[in-house]
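Dear colleague,

Thank you for sharing your sequence with our group. We've completed the structure prediction you requested, and as agreed, I am returning the results in plain text so they can be pasted directly into your records. Please verify that the sequence below matches your submission; if there's any discrepancy, let me know and we will rerun it promptly.
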Amino acid sequence: MMWICMGVLLLWVGSRGHAESHLVQFSPADFYNKLEAGKIMLVFFQRQACPTVSLFLAELEKSAVVLQDYGILVGKLSCNEQPVTRYCTEERLRHRAFLFRSGKEFLSFDLDTLFDVNSIVSEVLFAILREEVKYVHTDTDLMIMEKGAKGKKDIVLGYVLSLGTQEHRSFMETAYAYGSKYQFILITGGPVLKYLGAESLERSRVWFLHCRLHGSSKTPLNSERCPLTTMPKPLTTLNLHSFLQLMESPLVTEVYDDPSSVQPPPVPYQQTPQVFLFSRPATAHLDRDTAASLAWKLRGLALTLLVHRESPSVKIPEKYNAAYRLPAKSSDVKYVTLHDLDEVLELLERLEDEEVVVEDEEGASEDNEFERFIHVHELDDEVAAALFEKRTTLLDKESVGQLTSDNFHDAVAQSSLTVALFYFQWDAVSMTVLESFIDVAKRLADSEVQMSVVDCGEWTHLCAARPVNSVPVPFQPISSFPTILLLRPQGPAQPYGGLLDAEALHRFITLSQRPAPALLSSQEEVSSFLQEVPQPGLRGYKPHRSLGLFHTRAQASVSLFAEAARSLRGEVLTGLLTDDLAQKWAALHAVQLPAVLVFPSWRTHSHPSALPVPSSAPQLVADVSAALLHPMPELTVENLPSFLSLGKALLMLFVGEEEDAAGFSQNRALLREMKTVVELGRSSMGQYLASWVHLGRTPAAMSVLGSYLGSMPPLPALVLTHLPSGDEVYQFPPNAPIVAPSVLQWLQRVEAGIEKPAGMLGSDSWPAPTEFLDFLKIMDAEEEELVDEEKEKERAKEEVMEEDEAHSSSSEHVPEKKATVHSEL
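Please find the predicted structure tokens below.
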């Protein structure tokens, strides 16, 4: 009955939303009237219907509701009814949307950049606010902005991983609301992050630069740069609004009441902890300075209050010198005795970590970072177009070395790690990856890593893996481009198979620099090895880890483990334990030596997977890789290839972005139900990979889902695809509740051939753009052909001359007439 009522409610909401559509259906006359009136309009000129356009129009409908609050009309115009000159006739404009302002075309957007409501809203606001929201590329540019803002405006500096995301939209919407109060600056990476000490951020971030009161007693330093505060929470519109309000709060609030009587923070600070310090009349001035110093450290994390003990209302025992109250818990105040101000920061961080662990134990995903996405629609054409647009930009290759057939062995021998990119200058994908490769080289400029490139159009013998100076090269012929190899002296090459973007490559290289395996000889070293952050440059990233437990280092299986560890470099951190320490860890986890403990990044360190040591290193690598796979993973662009390689059918649950607490609870309940499917199905589920996709964190999956079913279905959607037996795509009935018994029965009907497929996988293939061409070999062959032709001509000429001499010698014995005939011939 509940589901029937919910279905009726959804139908009513859907019909109501359709009746109150904010997407304007322009006629040519309406369009020109609004254009002459100077309205700001986002218009799509529709020619024909297709799945891609249908998905776009659905998102455009959503964006119309949002953009109307900013005075922007959003609509479409059908070119089939009455075409508009230029916009309906030019073929190259058929996949673009146009922004009009002040009676003329202001900007156009390719539909591939407007893939959901977040990208539409963010890109349109970014275009309109291009004069208000500054974009800086270097630290010098930021310094100039700070000098101009001193004493006038504070600066809100935002870093987003990718344009067109939810974070980008949140930043632009906030800039629209607060643009007159603050100076907003946007960055997407580069040297500015180095100044901020955040070169390897894994998520978007916001900083508040205190420039308006710079140099006053309310700021901690009187330097040339504005003091900055980092927003600790994820970049959402609500979090950013609360953060800006928090930046306007008093630095220190002095109270004369007992902390238990002080009211919890009001809106919009209700989610902010309170920290209480205590003051005495004799040290009031020093106590105020101490409170101000701590308040600057806690800026954005907590509100600082200074409690005066001389007040009769304050009855706190003398042994306590600080207290705190956490939000969303209770109004209870906890009293503590601290010996250093930094202990307050450690206390808040520890309490925050404990809260996260509790949420994880309740079933929340341990990895809530926003996944970087790639919109893979017509990849080759898009990359080629992007490369063409930047054809005049010269890449700075000074940070990378050039490997050739002449210097290859010497260059590899001189560095402990050489990362080589094999590429073609005329290949669009190669040149795009080269740009990311140079970015990573600049980040690693101060390290021992040598970043090098090989132009396979010039050094074809090297790319074909032919011996250099009679010495073999440590890799097989390069057959696809671009290819990245990690090279070490006297060792085989290690291929890089991850995403070809700067962040993923930088992370892989950084992890590859760690010893494989690391020799751990004490409990302290093991504890340090299992910490979340392995070293600077990987802040926020939690890598996989593995421990090998052996009786002694001389044990035969140790070399097997070491070989497997070297193969796993860059993906898994490996450690080696022997003797008493190994015995202790084996007893702790109830395993027999030798054994391997695997600590996946998604699991706590107290519950590793225990594996026996097989008879070969490749088998151990395969066993460790299998143990790292999540039993019900969240599919992303980055990890999808590894799961497809398993050859299992994908049972994918597509969920939307949580708009409120109810949506979050619904998604949590759906994930628990899918886990129940796996548990109840047991052995029958071995042929399926149960997984889920969050369309908010992986927007590219929207196009995938639409292509599976021909149109965008209502969410949540449960889809079965990539079956080993065929290309069929099955959808769980959209109007049925997703509960474990029903899902298992549906899978049985699919196996029995009772269910009809809802779609088919596309037959498009993505072969390598070109085969490897050995240009020098081709040139040599052509030269040999020319030489052979010349020799043939020489032989023919000699034969003719010999015949002439023979006939000349015999001409004395033939009539003159015959000689004349011969000369004519």
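Summary note from our side: The chain has 25 helices and 30 strands.

Kind regards,
the structure core
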